[in-house]
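Handout, page 2. Input:
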Amino acid sequence: MKLVGTKAGVELLVHVQPRAGRSEVAGVHGDALRVRIAAPPVEGEANQELRRLLGKRLGLPPSSIEVLRGEQSRSKRLLLPGLTPQQVKDGLGL
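Output:
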């Protein structure tokens, strides 16, 4: 899994599987974190659920997690503000 530390926080590659049975972090998919999301990919619902799940795991407000690329794609690049790569690994249990 590739984590890029920046002045603003950590950039994280995520591979999302929408319409899963439950929302959970499911391991690694190449350089990306694999996340299953229970919400459908309709009107941003899956992105909102992704932000909620990662925010809860990492101690961030969901609204602070920014989708830098891939708003309508399964492959996304997120910005997790104010964190270090080690904090992200620890919060996600990796």
